[in-house]
Design brief:
The complex is a heterodimer. Chain A is mainly β. Helices cover 7% and strands 45% of the residues of chain A. Chain A has a 22-stranded antiparallel β-barrel. Chain A has a 5-stranded mixed sheet with strand order 10-15-16-13-14, with no helix packed on it. Chain A has a 4-stranded antiparallel sheet with strand order 3-2-5-6, with no helix packed on it. Chain A is globular. Chain B is an all-alpha fold. Chain B is built from 21 helices and 4 strands. Chain B is globular and about 75 Å long. Classes of the chains: A mainly beta, B mainly alpha. The interface between A and B is large, with 109 and 100 residues.
């Protein structure tokens, strides 16, 4: 089996990959060498052995070289190797990253056991830096942090980025619970660049949904500007460098591996709660007629301030209060009597008992989320070529019925050593994401939680709505019910004015998405001489995305005629090609110096387009085509293209492995800016010093490094409209004056208008000057490590839309102006409290903080948007209550809270700091890892809480004051004070300038519903502000690696089994919502707990 | 030797390979030149006066009147707190300057191409938009406004008297510039390109401005009475509206969603907004059949019977209003259910006739008919707008509170204008109530501002931030230096 597979793969697949290239390179001659490597080395001595670490673990991938020759081999999965050498006794050099290289004499005729010693004094860890250049970590003089791919595959998140939470200091990732929602990823407070195998991606056509965790070898985060200076403008905010797995990092021969994870939802980490005692309606009254205000009692209000439920009444057949409800049978020949709070009425709708039947509406609606990921990979290599093929499928079933997500990834890579001097490599990945329906988010009638949590009273049992077409079919025209007698036309619901039936939403209002993403690159390296190397690479990322939104008939969405149904389709197509060429010269000089000088050129071209169509009403139900549109089909098309040419170079010099200096420079020519400002140069410099190599330091210090860097980077990322900052269709042409196209009138008259931003000529690129200082210290033979970084960035002369007096005729002028300072610290502590033969415990602690301050405004202005020069930029500004100095809410003489008469600065939204702790324990074959993370500080507005109050669904609104209010009695005294004399003056930021107020407790009783409305239904976010702090137990993985001897009779070379848990615990004071990913009035899916199983197998 | 030759061959082949790869890469990369990227493919780089005019008309006439209707107590909104309804408003909007940007750009194109009709329209829209601004705030940037293009980003403020003097003159200019013989006006979605119709609108607007200045009739700088008399004395030079057909109004259509009546599909209008009690009472007291055209009966009751209609008191708390609403009239469903509904009138024949009636009643004008004729014309025009038949109009005109009475004429005219401006004319009804005190607006426990109706809006925060010294100077001359919603501007002093 193994042999056949090997033949198939090495002959078939490798040929498939490389045939075309080989034919080109060899002019059609037979490919030689790699398919029968032993053929060249006859009449030699064969030596066999295994390579392992001190604990006896095999070191797959260790390199064994016959000294002084190019003859080498690589150890297999079990550390085994075979090499033919000139004679027994030939010197073999054995090397493996992270271990001291070892020289040993070849011994034929016996199994050699080679034990490698971990390098302690100097870690020879290799990191991937800009352009994919590998450097020893020691040589890197700026902050980087690595995450191994293996840490991502056991308990994967659907979006790989969420597996990085807490694992890198300075990387802030806001986790999302909605199916298929992008997490927010901020590095040092800004959106950052993602780089795959040295090729920069573009956020318009690539994100973490396109990545399969099983294909990731490692992720290295280059945190600063200096790190990415060679990517130019793209790397201004650092970079997340992803290296995919290749055949060459594995064992010799063919390796087949399989990884499978299944995770199940086992309950909720955070789910909003609601009251269950009062039904829909107003002030205790409700009588359904048509849900459209056709003469019932508040049947179109949509509030849950209606009758108290489960009230006994001996006068009714059921023994409870009865009144007409949405599911009452209609009898045109009978008039039923009913009574509420002493008022009587009659209805053709049969009164039904008002019972609390909807306690578990949310749970009765939601599914248990499920996610599975299966991945198969085949990799192989020999001395001259390697390849890897992997296929992964991820399936996620959402919490909301009929929502799914699929992602399939095929990843191919191969490299070929054409000659000793010439190597080529190609990588291609195809990813397809497809979902027939994923939930719509935000606040509105298209959101499930809007229709269930906020506005569906507990008098409705959601299970009764499961047959979601109205019996008989029909729709309301005004107040007149027009029966159609068919389904597909009118949904059945508890209210026909404001809300949609959640089941109808799930099964009929389908929000589909299909995205095909191809990333591919080819690169070639040629050693012109021993010291001079030429490298060229071209990488393409392209995608085609199709989004479809089907709106069925009778869909409620507040205007716009959606009752007729609609169809919206959007096609996006994005393309990027980046080509880099680099000539590198390495030379030792002046005895103790080593230098690398590299010069290169780069070209980047992006093309993004979209086409969107929207019907206006549908003739035939469920025919989602543009031909079926009742009115004009509205279409929009957009195109954005940009080209940037660059020339760049770098110089690295080191002295005796003690001092490392690196200089870089780059010049860009962009099409986004106008000549001569379209050409700009930016340099960087970094310096690292290793005192432990220079001086004799106490033994307790194993390693010490000091580093510093400076960079100035310019970008052509102009933002024309601050309200729409990511609109590339505008921004890439941002320095060209244009008109906007306005509405068209009566199908004949077009219109246009002049935008409100006056574009001043000579817009220069944005420039950021960064400085970063850090130290890396290791103690006690590396058992304790500290990595500390301080950074400060100045955004200088950024092109901004500077606001001006509207009476000038413009709202903004686009100019180069402001200076913004961003600074912060990052701290990484690593420790190994226990390290014995059987037990090892590693801890990593990440901590970071970053804030941004205004240094200077354009034109010397001292304040803008109520933020003064010198203050932080992350201000939450909105309406707030007037408060006494001790923080109590000030009430007016009318018994209602009073707000300050203009918007004020309520606080800062950025967290004070974020942290993550990862623990990793191993005992013999068992491993346990668990990680906590959190963000501490910063404020948020909890609009969900506010809306729960408004609708009457907040648990605390079920109280006796509500009963009093229903009877018209004012009994509620709001907690706070009144002003007995004096007044307070506020400045524009809301700070008190003068205050001579005297206070007394508020004693005025008011109607409770009036108080709720005055307090929470008035757009005063200050009423619902919370500290956004939280801590999560994010991940627990318990794994077992099977003993090799247990696997001897199986087809497996190695096998591991893991139990995983995600999102297990949450600590926060924020009610109802998960502050990790959400704030404001976003109605997100409840955060769920997951447990799962992972199986990882490698075949012999 | 052979091996070294082979090596050279191999190297040559390799170079060929590299060159090949490089070529492929370069070819597959865009061959476009820098210049090819210097045109925005998504937005035009130029425009025409006609395209701008359509946009200007849309901005001015495509108007959701509901907020104004809460403030002027035609309607009341109780779904949640709303500053237009509860008088808690603070700053106003300078958005008219954004429309003026389009007007001035249209003027600039027209000047370059000598299209004088557009220059006349520039004058009309400037007068209209600056008038709305000064009504809202008091002093405003006028003479130095719209100069950002030439670098003046901090325009000085002009006092209200100067603004009125300027815009009245601009309407005189508009009247002189607008002339059908100068050709069709392209892009005109109001009058189909007829300059003579705009000329009428400019003159009607001038009458409105002059009546707004009624407290300044003795001002010799403005000579309000003379201006009014001159217009009415020379209909050849100053044509006016002669019927509803001349109304400056936008007729809606179903060609696309943004051509529908602006309140189409506005769910709150059908569920959480009711007719205001004061307004309903005015209509009921006069047995005004327009009530049946404007309002639904109380839910469950029959239409067309005055007793079956009632309003919600806009001065009450939201919860009380919600409770009252079950026994009150909502606005007629056509306002939110009909895509076309009715045109939205910026200024119309009914208002013009009531303006003339007032001028005659005030003794400003002679030789232009009687106040009663114009008063009856105004009411008739308004009732015809709602499709009331002639017999009902005749009955109504003879009604006890409606029949013209010289002793109370100014009050009667004010009431009729208030009715005629329901869901039309924007804030004009509010400004007219501010000037005349008619009718009395309901305030109470649900309203802010110490239960007073505000008289103006505060200057926008952006002016405090970006034009502070000019604003400070303007405030020193008004309201005792305080930017106060209850400040009484020069116009109504």
């Amino acid at each position: 089996m193994k042999k056949r597979l090997s033949v198939l793969l090495s002959r078939g697949m490798a040929a498939l990959f490389l045939l075309g290239l080989q034919n080109f390179a060899f002019g059609g001659t037979t490919p030689a060498g790699h398919s029968s490597p032993t053929g060249f080395f006859q009449q030699k001595v064969t030596v066999k052995g295994t390579v392992s670490d001190e604990a006896g673990n095999p070191l797959a991938g260790a390199t064994i070289t016959e000294k002084g020759t190019s003859n080498s081999t690589v150890a297999g999965v079990r550390g085994d190797f075979t090499i033919a050498v000139r004679s027994s006794g030939s010197a073999l050099v054995v090397s493996y990253v992270g271990f001291e290289p070892q020289e040993i004499s070849a011994q034929s005729g016996k199994e050699m056991g080679i034990t490698m010693v971990r390098s302690e004094k100097v870690a020879t860890e290799v990191v991937v830096t800009a352009l994919g250049i590998r450097k020893e970590k020691q040589k890197v003089s700026y902050a980087t942090q690595e995450v191994k791919g293996a840490a991502l595959e056991k308990a994967p998140e659907p979006n790989v980025a969420e597996n990085l939470i807490g694992k890198v200091a300075g990387l802030n990732i806001l986790a999302k619970t909605n199916l298929f929602e992008n997490p927010e990823i901020l590095l040092r407070g800004k959106e950052t660049l993602v780089v795959i195998d040295g090729v920069p991606t573009d956020k318009d056509n690539f994100d973490f949904w396109n990545l399969n965790p099983n294909d990731i070898e490692n992720i290295n985060v280059l945190k600063g500007t200096a790190a990415a200076a060679l990517y130019g403008a793209l790397g201004i905010n650092g970079a997340i460098m992803i290296t995919t797995k290749k055949g060459k990092s594995g064992a010799k021969g063919v390796e087949v591996s399989f990884n499978s994870t299944t995770q199940f939802q086992v309950g909720f980490l955070r789910v909003p709660e609601t009251q269950h005692e009062y039904g829909m309606g107003w002030s205790g009254y409700f009588a359904f007629v048509n849900g459209k205000g056709g003469g019932g009692w508040y049947d179109d209000y949509g509030y849950v301030w209606g009758p108290k439920l489960d009230v006994k009444n001996s006068a009714t057949p059921s023994g409870y209060n009865e009144y007409p409800q949405y599911n009452s049978p209609y009898d045109p020949n009978t008039l039923y009597d009913f009574t509420q709070q002493g008022y009587s009425d009659q209805s053709h709708y049969k009164p039904l008992p008002g019972l609390s039947r909807g306690k578990d509406n949310l749970k009765n609606f939601l599914n248990n989320e499920l996610m599975t990921t299966n991945s198969v990979a085949v990799a192989g290599k020999n001395e001259n070529a390697d390849y890897r093929i992997s296929l992964t499928h991820m399936y996620q079933k959402g919490q909301i019925p009929n929502t799914h997500l699929n992602s399939t990834t095929l990843n191919l890579s191969g490299s070929l050593k054409v000659s000793d001097k010439f190597r080529i490599e190609a990588i291609a990945s195809y990813n397809k994401q497809y979902t027939p329906n994923f939930p719509q988010t935000g606040y509105g009638a298209n959101n499930f939680f809007y229709n269930i949590l906020l506005w569906m009273g507990p008098d409705v049992d959601i299970r009764d709505l499961r047959d979601y077409w109205k019996p008989g079919g029909g729709r309301y025209d005004g107040n007149v019910f027009v029966p159609y007698g068919v389904k597909d036309v009118q949904q059945f619901n508890y209210n026909y004015t404001w809300y949609n039936n959640p089941w109808y939403l799930a099964y009929e209002a389908l929000n589909g998405y299909n995205n095909d993403v191809v990333t591919a690159q080819a690169n070639a390296t040629y050693d012109i001489t021993k010291d001079l190397q030429f490298f060229v690479r071209s990488g393409i990322i392209t995608n085609n995305a199709l989004s479809t939104l089907q709106t069925p008939k009778s869909y409620v969405y507040y205007g716009n005629g959606d009752l007729d149904g609609n169809y919206n389709e959007k096609r996006q197509s994005n393309f990027q090609i980046v080509t880099d060429a680099l000539l590198t010269y390495k030379k030792a000089f002046l005895k103790n110096f080593n230098g690398t000088l590299s010069v290169g050129a780069s070209n980047r071209y992006n093309s993004n387009s979209y086409l969107q169509g929207q019907t206006s009403g549908l003739f035939v139900p469920k025919d989602y085509s543009f031909e079926n549109s009742i009115g004009v089909v509205t279409t929009v098309n957009r195109l954005a293209q940009r080209k940037v040419n660059s020339a760049f170079g770098y110089l690295d010099v080191d002295y005796k492995k003690m001092i490392y200096l690196s200089l870089t420079g780059r010049n860009d020519w962009t099409t986004t800016l106008q000549k001569p400002n379209n050409s700009y140069f930016y340099p960087s410099a970094s310096l690292g010093v290793i005192p432990t190599s220079m001086f004799k330091l106490p033994d307790v210090i194993s390693f010490a490094k000091l580093r510093g860097s400076w960079a100035r980077v310019s970008t052509d990322n102009i933002v024309v409209d601050p309200n729409d900052p990511s609109n590339i269709y505008k921004n890439w042409y941002g320095t060209l004056p244009v008109y906007n196209t306005g509405p068209r009138w009566n199908g004949t008259n077009g219109s246009s208008n002049l935008p409100g931003t006056l574009i001043q000529p000579n817009i220069k690129p944005n420039t950021t000057i960064s400085q970063e200082y850090g130290t890396e210290l290791r103690f006690l033979k590396n058992r304790l490590g500290v990595d500390f970084t301080y950074f400060t960035y100045i955004d200088k002369d950024f092109a901004i839309s500077a606001p001006v007096s509207t009476a000038s005729g413009f709202n903004f002028q686009l100019v180069n102006g402001d200076r913004i300072n961003r600074k912060g610290i990052e701290l990484v502590l690593t420790g190994t409290p226990i390290r014995t033969k059987d037990i090892k415990w590693d801890i990593t602690f990440n901590y970071s903080k970053v804030h941004e301050w205004v240094k200077e405004y354009y034109n010397g202005d001292s304040i803008r948007n109520a933020i003064k020069v010198g203050e932080r930029t992350d201000v939450f500004r909105d309406w707030d209550w007037e408060r006494s100095p001790d923080g109590q809410i000030v009430y007016g003489s009318n018994g209602f809270p009073q707000f300050i008469d203009h918007v004020v600065n309520i606080g800062h939204t950025d967290p004070d700091y974020i942290f993550g702790i990862t623990n990793s324990l191993s005992y013999k074959n068992f491993g346990l890892s668990f990680s906590f993370d959190g963000r501490i500080g910063g404020i948020m507005y909890n609009g969900l809480e506010q809306k729960l109050y408004e609708g009457g669904m907040h648990p605390s609104t079920a109280n006796s004051y509500r009963d009093d209010a229903y009877l018209g009695n004012a009994t509620f005294v709001g907690p706070g004070v009144t002003v007995t004399s004096g007044s307070a003056q506020y400045d524009v930021q809301g700070k008190i300038i003068t205050d001579d107020r005297k206070f007394a407790p508020n004693t005025t009783a008011v109607n409770y519903i009036d108080w709720i409305f005055a307090s929470f239904v008035n757009g005063v976010p200050g009423a619902n502000m919370y500290k956004r702090s939280f801590v999560k137990l994010r991940e627990v993985v318990l794994s077992y690696n099977f003993e090799p001897k247990l696997l001897r009779k199986t087809p497996f070379a190695s096998a591991s089994l893991s139990a995983t848990g995600r999102n297990l615990l949450l600590w926060t004071k924020v009610p109802f919502m998960d502050p990790d990913g959400y704030s404001n009035t976003t109605l997100a899916e409840p955060t769920y707990r997951n447990i799962g199983v992972n199986i990882n197998l490698k075949f012999k | 030797m052979i091996s070294s030759k082979n090596r050279i061959m191999k190297q040559l082949i390799t170079y060929k390979y590299i060159v090949g790869v490089a070529l492929i890469i370069l070819l597959s990369t865009s061959c476009k030149k820098y210049e090819d990227f210097q045109t925005n493919p998504n937005q035009p780089s130029t425009s025409t006066p006609g395209l701008l005019l359509t946009g200007i008309c849309y901005s001015v006439f495509y108007y959701d009147n509901t907020s104004a209707s809460f403030s002027d107590r035609h309607l009341t909104y109780y779904e949640r707190g709303n500053s237009s309804q509860d008088y808690s408003w603070r700053e106003g909007s300078y958005d008219n300057y954004n429309i003026l940007r389009q007007v001035m750009q249209m003027d600039s194109f027209a000047a370059q191409t000598g299209q004088e009709q557009y220059r006349g329209l520039t004058k009309f829209f400037r007068a209209l938009l600056f008038d709305q601004l000064t009504e809202q705030f008091g002093d405003i940037p006028y003479s130095e406004a719209m100069q950002g293009i030439s670098g003046n980003f901090k325009p000085k403020y002009d006092d209200q008297e100067s603004v009125y003097k300027g815009i009245l003159q601009e309407l005189e200019d508009a009247n002189n510039l607008l002339d059908d013989t100068k050709g069709e006006i392209k892009g005109d979605i109001i009058y189909g390109g007829l300059a003579s119709q705009w000329k009428k609108a400019a003159n009607a607007l001038r009458l409105r401005l002059l009546i707004q200045l009624s407290k300044k009739e003795a001002n010799t700088n403005l000579n309000i009475k003379t201006q009014f008399q001159n217009i009415l004395s020379d209909p050849g030079k100053y044509p006016l509206f002669t019927s509803n057909n001349d109304n400056a109004q936008l007729v809606f259509n179903t060609s696309s969603q943004n051509n529908y009546y602006p309140d189409f599909g506005y769910l709150s209008l059908g569920t959480s907004i009711s007719m205001e009690k004061g307004f309903v009472d005015i209509l009921k007291d006069r047995s005004d059949p327009r009530l049946f055209a404007m309002a639904e009966p109380i839910p469950g009751m029959d239409a067309g019977i005055f007793a079956n209609y009632d309003g919600v008191n806009g001065g009450h708390t939201l919860a009380d209003q919600q409770t009252e609403s079950s026994n009150a009239s909502r606005i007629k469903s056509r306002y939110h259910d009909d895509k076309i509904n009715e045109p939205w009138i910026l200024i119309g024949y009914a208002e013009q006739e009531l303006l003339i009636a007032e001028a005659i009643s005030r003794g400003w004008v002679t030789g232009a008919g009687t106040a009663e004729e114009h008063y009856n014309n105004g009411i008739t025009a308004s009732m015809k707008f709602y499709g009331i038949d002639d017999a009902d109009i005749t009955t109504y005109l003879a009604g006890p509170e409606v029949a013209f009475n010289a002793a109370t004429a100014l009050d009667q005219i004010a009431v009729q204008k208030y009715i005629a401006l329901c869901m039309n004319g924007g804030y004009e009804a509010f400004y007219e109530q501010r000037r005349t005190g008619i009718p009395t607006f309901n305030v109470g426990p649900g309203t802010y501002n110490d239960m007073k109706v505000p008289k103006r809006w505060l200057y926008p925060q952006t002016e405090y931030d970006y034009n502070p010294s000019n604003l400070a100077t303007a405030l020193q001359g008004q309201y005792g230096g305080n930017d106060d919603v209850n400040g009484v501007m020069w116009l109504i002093q």
